[in-house]
């Protein structure tokens, strides 16, 4: 039996660190091709997809390299990094046969379209994958915040946060062998326990508008499809849990 999507419109957040694969820096071309195939598989189910990428594989405004820079300048460089990642992903998706548009919060009309909410929605309705570049277009806001903002603006049914780990843990599993995977938590628990799911502004945006967040491991083949189909993977962050 063919899989059935639980969500009809999704916002997929992909960290910049994930895009570098096993490399120390930049973009792993093999990984991004595999990622494009996974996204195409979900798109074939009739799901409308928006994607936000981070820029940490190229430059992070909060990194050591930016320690002595003006924060606004450093964050602007990071936002430009997200445009590079978005164009790479667009190329991989189009080579896989999927119509794609890049819309940037920072205007650069020679390489991508400006972000306009109604235009983004129209592209999705026409079956195009929309990649949302340039963060929010403002310094001091992470791409987590950008993904929560775009999920709300575009009316997404869920925010899918694709990471390099299996979900949200009680502690850093790389440092604490007793760390437990949390399969289901509330927005408030994620904020009050400082579980680093997303930053507080992103969690608050999703909480206030009732958009669930699924945190899962991008490096397990088929996980994007599983998340979209509502299978039990990773960590689900939503409203207060019921007994």
Q: What layout of secondary structure does this protein have?
A:
Elements: E1 9-14, H1 16-19, H2 29-43, E2 48-53, H3 71-95, E3 100-104, E4 113-114, H4 117-125, E5 129-133, H5 143-153, E6 158-163, E7 168-169, E8 181-182, E9 184-186, H6 187-192, H7 200-209, E10 213-217, H8 223-228, E11 235-238
Parallel strand pairs: 1-2, 1-6, 2-5, 3-4, 3-5, 6-10, 9-11
Antiparallel strand pairs: 7-8, 10-11
Helix pairs in contact: 2-3, 5-7
Oligomer, anyone? Answer: single chain
The percentage of residues in β strands lies in 15-25%
Q: What value does the Rg take, in angstroms?
A: 17 Å
**By helix and strand content, what is the structural category?**
alpha/beta
Q: Report the helical percentage.
A: 25-40%
- SSE series: EHHEHEEHEHEEEEHHEHE
Instruction: Characterize the largest beta sheet: strand count, sense, and whether it forms a barrel.
Output: 9 strands, mixed
Mean pLDDT: 91
Largest beta sheet: what is the strand line-up?
Answer: 4-3-5-2-1-6-10-11-9
Q: CATH homologous superfamily?
A: Acetylglutamate kinase-like
Enumerate the spans where pLDDT stays under 50 for 5 or more consecutive residues. none
Question: Can you name the CATH architecture?
Answer: 3-Layer(aba) Sandwich
First CA to last CA: what distance?
33 Å
CATH third-tier fold name = Carbamate kinase
Counting DSSP E segments of at least 2 residues, the number of strands comes to: 11
Return the domain count.
Answer: 1
CATH C-level name: Alpha Beta
